[in-house]
Amino acid sequence: MLNIFNKKKTAENPAPVAPTASPTMPPVQTNFAEIALNSIHDGVIMINQNGVIQFINPAAVTMTDCKSPNNAIGLDYGLLLKIETKEGRELTPEENPLIRSIQSSQPLEGYDCALISGASAKRIPISITTIPLNNGSKIITFRNIEQELAEEGEQTEFISTASHEMRTPVATIDGYLALCLNPQTATVDERAKGYLESAKKASEHLGHLFQNLLDVTKLDDGRIRPQFVPAEMISLVKQIVSDHAAKAAEKKIAFSFGAKTAEPTDDHRLEQVVYASVDVNFMREIMDNLIDNAIKYTPAGGSVYINVMGDGDRVLINVTDTGIGISSEDLQHIFQKFYRADNSDTREIGGTGLGLYIVKQRAEAMGGRVWAESAFGEGTTFYVSLPRISAEEYNKRLIAVQNASMINNKGGNQ
Ligand code: ADP
Predict the structure, then answer these.
(1) Which CATH superfamily is domain 2-144 in?
(2) pLDDT tens-digit profile of 280-300?
(3) Residue from 293, 305, 330, 333 to probe ligand 1 pocket by mutation (most atoms less than 8 Å from CB)
(4) What is the pLDDT of residues 370-388, one digit of tens each?
């Protein structure tokens, strides 16, 4: 067992020295590794193939509040590394990215969450990474991101206030431009009409941008938190999807719900009943953004298909289009804030580059994941996967929600 703590600097265990060039003495590399691991502010834990802690560095001891490495070594990592989402929601073992990564031996890269530390259950915001090794062991590292979040919080507050303040004058400008363009309220010549139409388009874009910025910051600064309710996902998504049918028809796009691929043949999938615990407003924002995009980036004559199905312990939603597609280079960046693919097709189509960021942010806040597959020039499929719950769990949560609302109503009536 590797325990680098409390080692006395004896003759057998000397203080670190620089590696020498002596052909008989190998360099004392391990001592440098010890110094580095003892000194860094990031927590480092090494577990064996059974999830048992073999090594823990001082930063990890402090962050987990286990007082001493001896209290941690030999323990199952799950007893020490209890995490919840950064929004403060408990994670089931099935949706917990740390457990999933350890069990599947897949690396986890910088998952932002909160560490529940020690007996006081203090919440420490961390970014956690796992690195699987060839022998089945794993290295878990975690970094305190409290300072980063505080700075981000200040930025978010500024963006939110600025967007809020600017939204009102933009709405006024937009209103006056609409009046100028309305023949019943103003007379303008043809040239001026062209200029005013351009100004109106720009003011609409600004209005949209400020609204998107406000939506992004609302979740970032904790002004909104997901309100989870149990839902039957096929009916919920179907209901949201139906609001977009008219827009698709207007653009002469075939639009349907119930097919996994662009072939609308397998309606029987909809006979499945799939449950999840979701925030209905978040679901609407996710679906509205994905479907708006699918319609926006698909030329007339194309198709958009949406489906929901159970996929093991997940609910899988896909929004598939036969539109302009996304290059593999752009595909890596499209979920970033303000990212817009820049090509001759997209330049013509307006947007803020915030829609997919909102989709990702909302999906992750519900314990979900979002990704896309695309063939440039042929079409794109966006996938949203969310933790699924059983029919039993659905009924249990439904009763809990109904009871809570009855109590609230009674309270309100008194
Ligand atoms: P935007 O407001 O620009 O649409 P998004 O964040 O919604 O912003 O999307 C980011 C970029 O991803 C878009 O600018 C576009 O290049 C690309 N994109 C998104 N959805 C699709 C789609 N269905 N087909 C092709 N490209 C898409």
Answers:
(1) PAS domain (3.30.450.20)
(2) 999 999 999 999 999 999 999
(3) 293
(4) 999 999 999 999 999 999 9
